[in-house]
Amino acid sequence: MAKGTISNNIRRLRFDAGEMTQKDLAAKVGVTRQTIVAIEAAKYAPSLELAFQIAHAFGVPLNEVFWWDAD
Amino acid sequence: MTYQEAKYATSMATTALAAVIYAVRVRALKAEGYFDGTDGMVLTGRAILILIAVIVVAGILGQILLAIATAISGNTPDMDEDERDKLIDLKAMNWAFSIFGFGLLAALIALALGHPAFAVFHYIIYAMIAAGLCADMIRIWLHRRGF
Question: What is the pLDDT of residues A32-66, one digit of tens each?
């Protein structure tokens, strides 16, 4: 299976959403702030459901938040 | 240190403390010949049951004290568990089962080599405690690393 990395735009999207804090985003999608920190740093790949919730929180399609880079 | 990390560190500390106190006490009793004789294994079983009860109660008390200390400090940490915490738990439990499995195997080999039942029971109990401590260490490490 091809091994790639899942990257994301969360930092920019938070900035565009009026400097939304990680804590605010975490509260919106129902996870801990540490999980948002880990996702933002691409250290943790969220479940599909959480990924959709994050995209929904920013009001953008999923592929504007996450994308997959083939190594 | 996050609340989750503090929770695992507290669990490690209470388990390790209970195990050390138990080891010291049982060693002294063993030297006095308390576990010798026909009812030696009955007394061993009771001692191990007391250890398990003490570990459970000490763990609960530790978590209560941590929650109180956190509330007093005025912090409002994330106390809920989310999907990442559950995955971290699962990974840590996999390691714990492996470590306990090796411990159990080592204890059975020791039994086959002629070690006394008293010692073999304690190898199993210490393997269980070591597995629990390693699981908590892995949880802290995975929390710090991200996943």
Answer: 999 999 999 999 999 999 999 999 999 999 999 99
Cβ separation A34–B2 shorter than 8 A: yes
A contacts of B78 (beta carbons < 8 Å): 26, 32-34
Give the residue extent of every domain in chain A: 8-70
Q: Where are the domains of chain B?
A: 3-145
How far apart are the C-alpha atoms of B63 and B9, rounded to whole Å? 10
Instruction: Using an 8 Å CB-CB cutoff, list chain B residues near A37.
Output: 146
d(CA B138, CA B8): 10
pTM above 0.90, yes or no: no
Nearest to A31 among B2, B4, B83 (CB): B83
- Please, where are the H alpha helices in chain A? 10-16, 22-29, 33-40, 48-58, 62-65
**Residues B42-46: contacts with CB within 8 Å, 24+ apart?**
B44/B117, B44/B118, B44/B121, B45/B121
Topology given in CATH for the domain delimited by A8-70: 434 Repressor (Amino-terminal Domain) (1.10.260)
Q: Contacts of residue B84 in chain A, CB cutoff 8 Å?
A: 31-32, 34-35, 38, 44
Minimal Cβ distance to B83: which of A34, A37, A47: A47
